Structures are given as structure tokens and as C-alpha cells.
Amino acid sequence: MNMNNRLKSIPFVVGTLVMSFGVSGAPKQSDPLKEASEVRLIISKVNNYWQSNNKAEVNPFWHHAAYHTGNMEAYRLTGNEDWLDYSQRWAEHNEWKGAKSNDRSKWKYNYGETDEHVLFGDWQICFQTYADLYNILPDDRRISRAREVMEYEMSTPANDYWWWADGLYMVMPVMTKLYKITGNNRYLDKLYEYITFSDSIMFDPEENLYYRDAKYTYPKHKSANGKKDFWARGDGWVLAGLAKVLQDLPTEYKHRDFFERRYKDMASAVVACQQPEGYWSRSMYDEAHAPGPETSGTAFFTYGLLWGINNGYLTDTKYKESAQKGWNYLKNKALQKDGRVGYVQPIGEKAIPGQVVDAKSTADFGVGAFLLAACEYVRMLESANNSDRAYWLDLLNKIAYPVLSNMSKGELQKNMQVEVSPNWDGRNKKVTYMETFGRLMAGIAPWLALPDDDTAEGKKRKELRDMALASYRNAVDPSSPDCLLWQGEGQALVDAAYVAESFLRGYDALWMPLDEVTKKRYIDAFSNMRHIDPPYTNWVLFSSTIESFLAKAGAYCDDYRVNSAIRKVNEWYVGDGWYADGPSFAYDYYSSYVFHPMLLETLQAMKDAGKYTRIHYGKYYDKALKRAQKFSIVLERMISPEGTFPVFGRSIPYRMATLQPLALMAWYEKLPSGLTNGQVRSALTAVMKRMFDGRENFNDGGFLTIGFAGRQPNIADWYTNNGSLYMTSLSFLPLGLPATHPFWTDAPQDWTNRKAWGGKPFPKDHHWDDGNNIKDLF
To answer: N or C, which terminus of the chain has less Cβ within 10 Å?
Structure first.
């Protein structure tokens, strides 16, 4: 579901210090923020030098397009609008096309620089940048040619489109980017089909490296000294391309393991043949074949390794050392005083003995590779010091610590200062504690599920996770003073669902470590919820969430409660992301609080459990995801330039829970086009600050107080207590993304209303069609 499922660790960052390795490999301590600031200056120097000396209005062939993949990464990191404009001018100049022929009967994919070579990957890499620009400002014109070309290509029986190593960088990321935009699974299946063919002709399974193409395979071709001749830039293209693919490839994709293995095996092979000075020689196994430093291959390798370190794939210290040595070479040798990136081997397809590559040797694709590596290095350096993330974590700790520190000791019910609505309906006030715990855990589970590390954040996370696990045990232990009210009130169904949701969101970290006695108690408690007849409203999803969790945990699941809820919710959909809360529409935020997240999680859990019933859970999930994406667009547009949103409907004291679907899409890495990581983070942060800063949101005991932006008890509904309000934690879901993720490291961006009221371009809105009705399997 979300990328944290495959994160192993986020190494390299230790508190506020980072381990920096010199060329000799000897470690030294450095200030990561100071170094990051220096690298940002390098990025500006390099990119401004290139753009001031090279016009944007050039053709979209591979070497120009490769530069733009680095330029777009530099834009995302810095927010420099001039750099964005440079890529937009390039795209407009080329009419958002690669090769321009419209006569499909003449389209070719052998090597060629004519307009008829539409299917040749060197003319398709431009589609990567067009897709990136589309995601910033959706306009079908920006990707219509990309879709036309790639979807025609996929309709043909040929599978040998990527017959040279470079093509894997040129086109593989196009496939995953267009998949994310369109949701068309054919992009992923053809991606796997095409790379499988590529492997059959130029991959060496003994060395885990790629020959440039079939002409260079061993022993047919050898280096000057009789060795296997792996060209650094060719393999650099592939490793960098695999990193880009994994960034966008769905975690549940059936062939994802293939790409992960290929990436990690290649990374290990690459590290093994790095030169002591930090670069990779042009012929990777034979330095003497074409001696001396080379930048383009080195930069792509450095980017590929840093990406794997930042995303938890490469955890061994050898990768950290290799990436640092690579960066040191790029900074100290390749970078020239004027901002030129030197030692770039000219355009070619192999290591050429005697070819001069020196400080004056530069090229657009080499600059693009340098920018990719530099940006990824900054992301690593700044990961422990992100100001927005620090604010979120401080607020999350303020909300969570009083609850978990007490409940882990069995003292929550003793010490919590309970508040109830002025028109409280008289139910047992002990429901407060179950609401507090279940709703809090549903929001912070993704963050607690991140792997341990030695950062200050990691230490706090482990402390709260240990408290949470103890609290989970106390919640169902009859001998604990904090055993929750699992029976006697219908409200138990609601908050049992939030507890179940927390297990679904942090299954390996929060459910699996529990002892067998505690697990059995939860299964019994969840199963006993079947005696509660849910009203004909969003409550049907509370039942389905519990039952689907039981299915995932291997216990008995009442399929009827799940399937009837899915069918009813589908009937209650009214369009453009909104659900009616039962047979009649209510203009409130229950589409945020319950419908979108719990429907998606019900469907995903049934998929995870491998359940086969009349309902096709996968197809329903895809439809529900499209609806949630549309609703996230609606919610983002509700955030004013000042960081407020409209206050209407019941349960408004749930505060930030209103924005849960937007946070959920960010955590799932499924933000729709038009919503970037930087703008969503900025928007959510602005609302948090507007709601929580300088206001009386906590009572004297440190627990949330009834209100919306401060203490406002009059807005409580008859069922509201201050435990209900912990639903606000549901907006913290993106903390489940690691600190190095672009959600946190991309530059702040204006959200839609700031753009609109600031006179800037912004995406036009439109009605969303989520597809045809889905039929039962039988």
C-alpha cells in the first residue's frame, strides 16, 4: 500500500550530525545543515551557469531531455520558478512532442534522429519531463502525445524496443509516470515485458551489470586487456532508471520484487568497481582501457546509490562510503570554478581508448546527472532537520504523549481530564478512553511503523511505540485499570474500528509484536462487535473495517458485513468525491472522517487476506482510490490562502480530521496530478499552525479540549467528548513517509487558493468520472 512497507532503515543520519567520508574513506563529523547549504549553492551555480549559456529552445532529443530530468529535480528541491520556466519553454518549443511524425506506418525504433523515429526511446525521454510538468499543472495537451506514442507502442506485438542500456533510463520512468497519471496497468505490464527482453540480450547475470547493447557482450567483445567491457555511463543510466522506476512503482505490483532485486544487485556490483578517487572508469572493469575520471556515469551512480540510501534499500555501510566518495569526486574534481561540470565523456556508446576527457569536457546530460546526485545528497543531509516535519512531530508528541505515557502504565482512566458535550446524551463516560486511544493510534500508526534509527526522532518514535504496545495490551487486559469499554455501548463498534484501523496501518510494527494472549483478546473483542447492529450510515464501514482486519489476521471474517458495506457505500456515492451518509446526503465532512479511508482500508485488507467472494476487491479498490483522489483535490481547494477551511457540518471539533483523505493520499504516494508534495505539505502545515498555535486546544492535564480552534464547548454534538477529538491525529499520516521523502524535502509550494488569489496559474477543476459499474464475480 504505502512505501514504508519496504523501508528497512534510513541510515546515514545520526541526530544532527552526518558521517562524511573523505576520498580515503576515513570518517569525519560534519554539520549536515551547513553542508546542505553549501550543496544548494553548488546546485544554483551549476544550473544557472548552464541555463545562462544554453537556450531552452532546443530539440527534445535524449541529451537535452536528460538534462531536464535533472532540472526538474532541482526545481522540486528548491522551488526556483526560473528553472521551472526553462523546462516549460523547452516543452512548449517542442509542442510537447518527441519525434513529430504523425504517419504511424513510418514510425521506427531503430537508432535514428529523424522525425520518423517516434518509437525510438531517445525521442521518448522528453515524456518524463512533460509528465512532471503535467503533474504540476494538469493540461491534457502536455501528455497527449506521450500517451498516443506509448499506448500505440504497447498495442504492438513487439517487445524489443529497449535494445540498448541507455533506453532503460530514457523510457522506463516514462512508463511508471504515465501509469501514475492514467492508472492504466498496461504501462506496468509492458514495462516488465520490455525489460525482460532487454535482460535477455545485454544483462550479465554473473556480474549483475549491463553491456551497452548486444554488440558488446562478452566474449564477443572485450576491453583492451581482455576483460568484460561494462560502460560506466550505460550502467549509470540503468541504475538511475531503476531508482526512478521504484520511486513510482506501486508497492503491490506483482513484479516489484524483480525491480528491487535488480536494483540492489546492480548497486552492489557498482560499488565493487569504484575507483579509489571516487569516480567510475569508463570501462568499469578495465581502468587502463580508457583511463581517467569521468563524470556522467559517476553522477548517475552517485544519484542511484543516494536514492537507495535515502529510501531504505541500501543499508550496508559500503553504500554510504561509496556514495560519499562519488559526491566528493563530483564536488572537488568535476565541478569547475565557473559552474561548469567537467570530465563528461562526449556523446557515444562505449569507452574509447585515447579519447580526451578533461575539465573542459561538459554536456547537457552530464549536468542533468550532476543535478540529480546533488539534489539527492541534499535530501539526505537535511532529513533530520526539516522544519515542517519538526513542527508536525512536536505537535504530534504534544497530542500523543499524555495519552500513551498514562495508558502504558494503566493510568489513563485515573489521570485523564475528561470533558463532555454540554448536551451529553448520558451514555457511560468511559467511552471517552476508547475513543481517545483508538483514534489517536489510527493517526500515528504509520509514523510508529517506520524503522528504528539513531536520530532524535527515531528515539522518540521508539519511546512512543513501546508505550503504544503496552497500551494495546492494557486496552484488552481485564486486570488492567485501563481495560477499555468493549461492551455495553454501541459506541464501542466505532472505536473498535479505529483500533483495527491502527493495526491495518501499522500491521508489522503494532500488531505482529503483540503476545498471543493479547492478540486472542483483540480477536475476541472484535468478533463480539457483531452483536451491534450498525445504523444505516457510515457505521457500516466500522463493521467492515473490523471484519477485514480479522480476515488479514487470519481469523474468521463475516464476509457479509464487509460486502454489504462495500455495496451500500458504492450506492451512496453522489459524485466528485462526496458520499451521502446513508440514503440522504448530509453536507458535512464524514466523507473525510470515515468513508474514503475506511472503504480503501477494508478493500485493501480483503485483498491482503486473499479473500475470494462475489466482490472483486481489486476493481472496487481502484474505483474507491479515484474517488479519494478527487476528494483530496476538493479538500485542498478548500484551504484558503490564509490556511483556513470552511467550518460546516456536525463533528467539526474533530479539527484536522477534515483533511484526512488529503493526508492519506500523500502517505499512499497517490496524490493526483495538480497536487504536489510541496504544496500539500505546505497547505497542511499552514492549517495546523492556524488551528493550534497560540490557542487553548489543551486542558490543564495536557489533553485535547472541546473546540475547533481553541476551547469552544458550545460546538460539541451530543455524542462528543474530548476523547472524540483525537481524530485530529488522522491528519498526521504523512509522517509515515521517511524524513528523506520528497513530501518533506521538496521546496514549499503555494497551494491552489494561494495561487489563484495570487494571480498565478493553477489547475482548472472539472468533474471526475470514476469508470463503469463493477459486476459481481459470480
So the answer is: C
Query: By percentage, how much of the chain surpasses pLDDT 70?
Result: 96
Q: Which three cell numbers stand for residue 464?
A: 512512543
Report the number of distinct structural domains present in the chain. Answer: 2
Beta strands in 316-373 (DSSP E): none
Kindly give, in sequence order, each residue whose CB lies less than 8 Å from that of residue 69, ignoring residues fewer than 6 positions away. Answer: 125, 128, 129, 173, 368, 372
- How far does Cα 375 stand from its chain's mean position? 17
Q: What is the largest CA-CA distance in the chain?
A: 88
Catalogue the E-assigned strands of 527-681.
573-575, 578-579
The reply to whether 397 and 302 lie within a common domain is: no
Q: What DSSP state is assigned to residue 775?
A: P
Same domain, yes or no: 379 and 400 = no
Query: DSSP string of 361-372?
Result: ---HHHHHHHHH
Integer angstrom CA distances of residue 221 from 214, 224, 225, 229, 666 = 9, 10, 11, 7, 48
C-alpha–C-alpha distance, residues 623 and 634, integer Å: 17
pLDDT tens figures, 648-700:
999 999 999 999 999 999 999 999 999 999 999 999 999 999 999 999 999 99
CA 674/CA 180 separation, integer angstroms: 12
Q: What is the DSSP string of 97-148?
A: -SS----GGG---SS--STT-TTSGGGTTHHHHHHHHHHHS--HHHHHHHHH
Radius of gyration for the alpha carbons in the chain, expressed in angstroms and rounded: 27
CATH code of the domain in which 356 resides? 1.50.10.10
Closest CA to 13 of 36, 38, 37, 32: 32
C-alpha cell at 72: 526538474
Hey, what's the cell of 533? 447492529
| CA dist., res. 5 & res. 148, Å (int) | 34
Q: pTM here?
A: 0.93
Cα→Cα distances 645→287, 357, 517, 635, 637, Å = 61, 57, 45, 8, 9
* pLDDT value for 4: 42
Q: Which residue has the cell 500523543?
A: 400
Give the whole-angstrom CA distance, residue 534 versus residue 598: 15
**Residue 777 is assigned to a structural domain of this protein:** no
Distances (CA, A) of 378 to 172, 191, 389, 442, 741: 25, 30, 16, 32, 12
Tell whether 361 and 377 lie within a shared domain: yes
> From CA 263, how far away is CA 324, in angstroms rounded?
19
What is the three-class DSSP state of 463? Answer: helix
495 noted as active-site residue: no
Output the pLDDT for position 771. 74
766, part of any domain: no
What is the C-alpha to C-alpha distance for residues 18 and 22, in angstroms, rounded to an integer?
13
Domain around 210: 3-384
At residue 10 the predicted structure's pLDDT band, cuts being 50, 70 and 90, is very low
Cell of 466: 513501546
* Residue 13 banded pLDDT, cuts 50, 70, 90: very low
Helices (H), 572-659: 590, 596-608, 617-638
Please state, in angstroms and rounded to a whole number, the distance separating the CA atoms of residues 457 and 462: 9
* CA gap 534, 75 in Å, rounded: 50
Contact residues for 502 (Cβ-Cβ < 8 A; gap 6+): 438, 441, 442, 445, 510
